[in-house]
């Protein structure tokens, strides 16, 4: 099954095609990932993995979004995300994480959280799956990276409008329409009101809203 998101059914050569107004100011990539821009029946968003790329007769890497890297970034950033991240299940996990971790943030802050999660998917030190990254160590009460996953509180979505925005952010960042250079290859963040010990061993990249983002020096977990 593939994710259905009607706003991402336009050709990739239009920078803002299909992008909601709330996200438009953050778009900084002229063409999204090929897996996020193809037409599908009934004008629905279509994405799949290698089979769809083969159907287009394209090279596996052709048209895939690879983040721009700068000094200090890690080699794993030079790889496209697995095609499976566009699936309905993976997008649901990403949108859910954005909703619970950052729905009170501006759109940039929500995109930053999404970028961290997807950076982990690229990083071989973590699972190559959005859902597995988001719920990694969920049985460690109040000690996992994404606190909503291990705080013991039911994950009930009560603000549908905020969740719909989270879905839009999830797809825009996954598809490469939005990439925040100030977050870069960050794989960690914390709220400004806490001071975790692990943060002292990492490079502080930026603060966006109520979250501080960090990049590891070695490229792995720490």
From TrEMBL:
Pfam family, one: Hydrolase_2
Protein name: Cell wall hydrolase, SleB
Presence of the UniProt keyword Cell inner membrane in the record: no
InterPro entries reported in the protein's UniProt record: Cell_wall_hydrolase_SleB (IPR011105), SleB_dom1 (IPR042047)
Origin: domain of life: Bacteria
Single GO MF descriptor: hydrolase activity
Keywords: Hydrolase
Domain Cell wall hydrolase SleB, residue spans: 104-214
């Amino acid at each position: 099954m593939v994710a259905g998101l009607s706003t991402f059914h336009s050709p990739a050569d239009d920078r803002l095609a299909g992008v909601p107004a709330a996200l438009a100011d953050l778009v900084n990539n002229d063409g999204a990932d090929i897996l996020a821009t193809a037409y599908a029946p009934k004008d629905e968003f279509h994405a799949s993995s290698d089979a769809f790329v083969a159907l287009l007769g394209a090279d596996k890497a052709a048209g895939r979004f690879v983040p721009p890297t700068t000094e200090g970034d890690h080699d794993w950033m030079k790889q496209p995300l697995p095609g499976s991240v566009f699936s309905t299940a993976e997008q649901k996990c990403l949108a859910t994480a954005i909703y619970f971790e950052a729905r009170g943030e501006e759109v940039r802050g929500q995109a930053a959280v999404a970028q961290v999660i997807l950076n982990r998917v690229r990083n071989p030190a973590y699972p190559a799956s959005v859902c597995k990254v988001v719920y990694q160590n969920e049985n460690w009460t109040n000690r996992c990276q994404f606190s909503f996953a291990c705080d013991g509180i039911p994950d009930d979505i009560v603000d549908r409008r905020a969740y719909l925005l989270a879905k839009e952010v999830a797809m825009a960042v996954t598809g490469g329409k939005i990439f925040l250079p100030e977050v870069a290859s960050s794989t960690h963040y914390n709220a400004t009101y806490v001071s975790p010990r692990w943060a002292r061993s990492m490079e502080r990249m930026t603060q966006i809203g109520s979250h501080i983002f960090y990049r590891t020096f070695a490229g792995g977990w720490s």
